[in-house]
């Protein structure tokens, strides 16, 4: 057990924007929410998963909807008090702690604000080890753990509780409610007992995120910024350094398909990378060859400052490093790949772990 | 022959140039910025007119670039107090106005704010109706406590009715003379960033009033009656004076853009780093193919996150007037400065404040003032400070470089004498003889722009119609800012679908640029 | 207290199709569901509102969504068991009885099926006295009674409970969920105490509906059918008789606007009636002049059989009577007119009570 202070929040936010893998939304507003809450209610206790009693009930706190709406209309603040109260009543059990549903983007920050406000601990884990666009894309789904009973609310005070037959149905109905609530909502989801959490979550991801953020912060202060330290911390692979020469987007069947072209510079001159993204980056090709796909993380960081970049903010001319991070091993199971592998996102590619792909590339 | 005059009022120096209609430099002048602004402008203007001997009736345009607003924020001086009304309740209470602001700046602006009922949803539906008596009660409680008002509504860039209603109420309650900033006119999605910009805009009403008056008086006094007057904006374009009075925030950081564009124009270099050393601060930008590299991340001014359209620039508290103090651990440089009072306060001018300019003079790198006045400073101490200036600059340049390779640096600005000629990581320092007036030249060659941003739902409006609508608003904005309608061209279109939203909603941003009318 | 038998269900369904005022959906599928439930579980107890203990908790059972989907993908049957179970858990209290949210269309019958399965009584009341298209259009809204906590489910087993700030938000969110659930969902809404139901409901509407049904049934057996008996039982007016010459529909800012043109026959020759409808009929004009508007009921019945007609089934050439039925007096309050008057539906017309309009007409005629 330890406490999360302001610096930790700053670092986790930076780390979270890397783990967003191009999506997840800019954690900035979430960070302000967390900082404001911690300032007012005191620091948050961070528990290791092993410190959660087997019978204790934990629940994720997250926002759903469009980050570009969230930056304009963010929560009132007491949404989660409402949600916890309603859900406690419906479940007939007290909630011991909260945790982030995903480590990438805005949702890395929400549980900190919630924990501070409600005086609950936060657990050092998540259910993705990164960001994903749909709520059934959770390691919990691999183990058949249900997202419901779930509670959802808006800043106006409308509350819903859902109890569904599958996590895909939860996604569908909660998303429709979110649209009605003005394209963003607050929710408490995946009530889970300590013993199940230990078995199914991605452990120590908050600490991992914090270490990433700390590394980037320290590196950005140094003179000769090298990306190697970041790779060491993440166990990641450097794929290419270059400048963005094209970002294109098309909408097909209700999905937004995007493509980023990056031309190599310096040592990577004459090389080219192509990133296929939806909200998050899904597949990465170097010189036409696939070198990484989801669920492994394809991340862009600013060439000079190593600041992680989201796809919404990408601009022509931006100089970036592309790095590939291995995903949590739970995603590399058959069920995991079915849930979040390239085929789910509509790309006819087999998933091969990034270590293998990069090793293969190195031999060439 | 027609002429245009470019004037740049910095914290320390006021520069003036005259260009002909082919953009040839005919005359330049530099003088110290005076406290009332007007005298400094008049001084430079008078001298440059004398030097060029042109017919004053043939002056068609006068452009003013001023860092007055930037400096006011950085130094927390001359700012108006602001009452901040956020129309959002019950949304957004989790992060209230002034969150993450430096405490001292918040205090200077009085820190008065309230989040009240109002705002729209992203699709234009009402989030909360505004409550008139709530607003009137609030304003009543603010009577006498605030100089200006800033109104920020959730998704007001989509629908501005509520903000405009509140403006009317403010004028009814507090009087017509109370200036009001509406966030819908400041633009861009992202409530916190837009709110910060709107608050700063209100805080700057007093500063812009002084600046504009000084400028107008100076022109009249110099016999310039037929020229159109423009102020420079931070994206390298211009706005008319009356427009600028309402939107002083847009002048923020126009100096760096002007100096980058001016420096590039002068040096003919397409790729380089531009180091613009003023009296109080230095700005470092990158020229990429002749244009300033644009920042894609949020820009901070005086420690405040905003969403300005501006080049990727870092600013350090180092200039020709930076105050040097001795501490137990050695010397500190800046970030405060004697500014325009350098000719009274710097040691070489007979004052008793040690500044960076004194160091340059002490080491014989510059010849201004009287070297004798600084002779008592040990030479090794001066060298140590000079080295410290060099390493501060080197570190900042290093942050901006595109690669590890050494790069050419174009050095401009009135304070450039304080910068050593050898800096780590720099292959060559280019000092153009006219580099000291790059700002003013940059101001002279500017165009006028307009920008519009909104979320459109393609299920409700056809994509082409949405584009047309956005362009229509951008063009109107440009015309309002002083552009000639026929010359307006679209220069930038951004179309980004809303992530994680199942409907067909897209954020469109269009920027247009036109010639001066 | 009395029991509803099969004949009652048939009659209520028939009456409900008149009270649908052109909308509400064909009660047929609801009727079949209710009949089989009653066959399996026995008849349903119908309670008068006066028989309810003041503190007892009631809830309405209804369907939401498109009637044309409901006729294809109808109930599993266990929906209301699950809804009431979850909602009782959420509220921490069991339900004493159920009641119809509206007397018009399919929702008149759903609570009979629900009551029969659950073995609880049904109350002889509703919250509209007719059919309306949106959830907040309830006499309960006039009294500030909320539709939530509300439970909603589909035949697959997905359940939602919503608890909102007002009935308009409930409509909005429940409608979106219904859409995802496949355009038809089962709903338990408006949990309400006996004392409040007594104050705010439209009373004896099930019995009223049954009487209408019975009257039509009996008339249709007769050799010479007259509309008079139906007018007697409803207190309604005969507005017009004619032949449908046009039915047109347009969509404007998300609303479906429809228009039915009916040209007079026999003594009404050379006269023309025009009905403006959305789902239900909202405005009736005769020779260009407004003669009736919502919330009063504008109903069409078959000229030969007196069978009530819904707008979905209207066809060119069909010969009809147009009847005008006065709405429940609760709708004639300012709050009521705001909720369901012609302006809410987008028509710039003042609501004038049907009886007054008829009086004026009669004055002019004499």
> Over the alpha carbons, how many angstroms does the gyration radius of chain A reach?
20 Å
CATH architecture of the largest domain in chain A: 3-Layer(aba) Sandwich
Percent of sequence in beta strands of chain A: 25-35%
Helix content of chain A: 25-40%
Shape estimate of chain A: globular
Largest interface: A-B, 55 and 53 residues
> Number of DSSP helices of chain A?
12
CA-based shape of chain B = globular
Kindly provide the name of the CATH class of the largest domain in chain A: Alpha Beta
* Radius of gyration over C-alpha positions of chain B, nearest whole angstrom: 24 Å
Strand sequence of the main sheet of chain A, in spatial order? 15-14-13-12-11-18-16-17
CATH topology of the largest domain in chain A: CV3147-like fold
| Total beta-strand segments of chain B | 23
This entry's quaternary arrangement is: heterotrimer
Distance between the termini of chain B: 17 Å
Helical fraction of chain B = 25-40%
Beta-strand share of residues of chain B: 25-35%
Spans where pLDDT lies below 50 across 5 or more residues of chain A: none
> What number of structural domains do the residues of chain A give?
2
Largest beta sheet of chain A, briefly? Answer: 8 strands, antiparallel
Mean pLDDT of chain A: 91
Provide an overview of this structure.
The complex is a heterotrimer of chains A (364), B (517) and C (366). By secondary structure, chain A is α+β, with helices and mostly antiparallel strands. Chain A has 2 domains: 2-203, 3-Layer(aba) Sandwich (CV3147-like fold), CATH 3.40.1610; 223-362, CV3147-like, CATH 2.40.390. Helix content of chain A is 33%, strand content 28%. In chain A, β14 (281-286) and β15 (289-293) form a beta hairpin. With 517 residues, chain B is of the alpha/beta class. Among the domains of chain B are: 1-76 and 207-252, Nucleotidyltransferase, domain 5 (2-Layer Sandwich); 80-203, Rossmann fold (3-Layer(aba) Sandwich), CATH 3.40.50; 447-514. Chain B has 15 helices and 23 strands. In chain B, the strands form 5 sheets. In chain B, strands 3-2-1-4-9-10-21-23-22 form a 9-stranded mixed β-sheet, sandwiched between helices. In chain B, a hairpin with a 4-residue loop joins β11 and β12 (282-288). Chain C has 366 residues and is an alpha+beta fold. Chain C starts with a strand and ends with a helix. Chains in contact: A-B, A-C. Chains A and B meet through α2 and α3 of A and α7, α13 and β22 of B.
